Amino acid sequence: MTSPAATTYRVVLGIFLRSLRERAGLSPTEIAQRFGWYGVGKVSKLEAGTVRLTEEELTGLLDAYGVTEPEAAKLHEFGAVARTRTGGGRTPAWGDTYKVLEAHASEIKTYRETVLPGTVQTEDYARALLSMSLTTPPSEVAGAARERATRQALLTSDNPPGFWLVVAEPALLRPIGGTEAFRAQLERLRELVDLPHVTFQVLPLEQGEHHAVGTPFTLLRLNVPALSIAYLEGLTDANYLDHPKETDVYTLAFDRLRVTALDDRTSAKMLDRRISELK
User: What residue stretches are annotated with the HTH cro/C1-type domain (predicted)?
Assistant: First the structure.
């Protein structure tokens, strides 16, 4: 059977293949005809990550799309994981796909309105949020919270991504997990804010309307393979938008949010004040 990691990488590989095909200006029909596949069904399934892709098929697709090194090598790495057959099979949770993309990103730009993003969450803060989840079984909350807290290691690694975080002021006011847990969360955020590759800004309440009201999102940029993705999360699923017409809009929205928000020094001082208020 296919392992959870394999099914997740299969979905991720499909996202890349769709983007590469569109970048090459080829239609699903043209690819199906080139490989002698009956109809476009197999192309759609490969790009959705619902069927396995052989190494030979992957090599042929990358050649058709004009993919060269080092992109090709990285995609073959993804393909090798996607073909593994250890452990029990399952359909990957939509969050698993995001974690793989996040781990390979060179830049992460996140806007949040009411809660802090998973990348900076402490275990207690994450546990409080997950305990309210309608899709996470109570028996899995503690383990999911521990796993989420480990994602901070990405920001403190030897080769971290650039990380930009814009939060609306309510995210600093809602005491998720109670006063003590929330204070510990903000103190940990304050430590991360001091990292040289982290930029933190607050959008104050008095700002009023702005370009992303009601729409928290994350922009991921991967260098190898080259891809930009806008990620939008819901209660039961998530959307991964990779068409330039879509990602360009979210990039512009994030750039304008940064102009509208307080600068990094003023934002850090606001965070310090909030921490002091909770003591």
Answer: 17-72
DSSP class of residue 241? E
Whole-angstrom Cα distance, residue 196 to residue 162?
9
82 contacts 55 by C-beta, under 8 angstroms: no
Q: Residues 6 or more apart from 267 whose CB is under 8 A from it?
A: 200, 201, 202, 261
And the tokens for 207?
């700002």
Same domain, 55 and 116: no
Number of domains in the chain: 2
Q: What tens digit of pLDDT does each residue of 89-143 get?
A: 444 466 889 999 999 999 999 999 999 999 999 999 999 999 999 989 999 999 9
Q: Indicate if 149 and 269 belong to the same structural domain.
A: yes
Q: How high is the pLDDT of residue 224?
A: 85
Residues 59 and 123 in one domain: no
Helix (H, G, I), strand (E, B) or coil at 53: coil
pLDDT in tens, 222-246: 998 889 999 999 888 889 999 999 9
Residues 108 and 229 in one domain: yes
